[in-house]
Design a protein that fits this description.
Helix content is 49%, strand content 10%. The protein has 288 residues and is an alpha/beta fold. The protein has a single domain, classed as Phosphoenolpyruvate-binding domains (TIM Barrel), CATH 3.20.20. α6 runs parallel beside α7 (178-192). The chain is globular and about 55 Å long. 42% of the residues are buried. It comes from Microbispora oryzae. One of its GO terms (molecular function) is lyase activity.
Length: 288
């Protein structure tokens, strides 16, 4: 097979997987995503029955020795995405933070690389780490989302662009005006080419219900301890539920407890219930 034919086959297969991923976003029957940060966690999630795998930018950054918050470079991030996509047999959506670029053109380059790595979805956030304001200006962020859409259109892949707004996560502005600001940003992002809206930090069912009604687009929430259960979130029309960095953080908590127990008590009870060596090895059998 020629390289051209191989590329065409890859693109066709990836476009199909992108459509498959898009169809998983159904209001009231949410896509559940316990986010992964490496190949092992991705396979564990897939083995548990996940129809798709999502990465967590924080977990990825931590595992590579970098703080979260636009500190990880594009290269290492894309390499990790490629490793995950090559390891699992389900669609992969990647958390690309702000796009690993200062400009919209740079975001377009990033998304091109992410698509080449095998992902069919991305999260792009409007938090502006180190910027003059907590969030990027709406027009600026809309341009970045439009750039992501251009990159996907250029290769014929219907990438699912999940536009994340951190109005609630970063407590931006007056609480009374936060819903309006979230809707203002969401409308601009959807008009620029986003497919869904992600509002981490918000778990109030009444507010989520109003957002679902106003947006007319798949709504993604961040869940964890203290948040309403899946059934309650589904009941107000949420289409996607992510666990974000919390799974990685919980795994690291086990490592911390095991280390402290070893040094303080000389015992190993924290390791009770660990996955077996053979069980983990079997996740990769036949995948060389």
């Amino acid at each position: 097979m020629t390289s051209h034919n191989a590329d065409a086959t890859f693109t066709t297969r990836q476009a199909g997987r992108a459509r498959e991923f898009r169809d998983l976003h159904v209001a009231g029957r949410p896509l559940l995503l316990p986010n992964a940060w490496d190949a092992v966690s991705a396979r564990i999630v897939e083995e548990a029955g996940a129809p798709a795998v999502a990465t967590t930018s924080a977990g990825v950054a931590w595992s590579l020795g970098v703080p979260d918050g636009d500190r990880l470079g594009r290269g290492p991030a894309v390499e990790l995405i490629a490793r995950v996509a090559a390891t699992v047999g389900v669609p992969v959506t990647a958390d690309v933070e702000s796009g690993f670029a200062d400009t919209a053109d740079g975001v377009e380059e990033t998304i091109g690389a992410v698509l080449a790595a095998g992902a069919v979805g991305v999260n792009i956030e409007d938090a502006h780490h180190g910027g003059p304001e907590p969030l990027r200006p709406v027009r600026d962020q809309a341009d970045r989302i439009a750039a992501a859409r251009r990159a996907a259109d250029a290769v014929g892949i219907p990438l699912f662009v999940n536009a994340r707004t951190d109005t609630y996560l970063l407590s931006v502005g007056d609480p009374a005006g936060r819903v309006a600001e979230t809707l203002r940003r969401a409308a601009a992002y959807l008009a620029a080419g986003a497919d869904g809206i992600f509002v981490p930090g918000l778990t109030d069912l009444a507010v989520l219900s109003s957002l679902v009604e106003e947006l007319q687009a798949p709504l993604n929430v961040l869940a964890g301890p203290g948040a309403p259960g899946v059934a309650a979130l589904a009941g107000v029309g949420v289409a996607r539920i992510s666990l974000g960095s919390s799974v990685a953080a919980a795994a690291y908590a086990v490592a911390q407890r095991a280390a402290r127990e070893l040094f303080a008590d000389g015992t190993y009870t924290t390791l009770d219930g660990a996955l077996g060596y053979g069980e983990i090895n079997a996740l990769f059998t036949g995948r060389d």
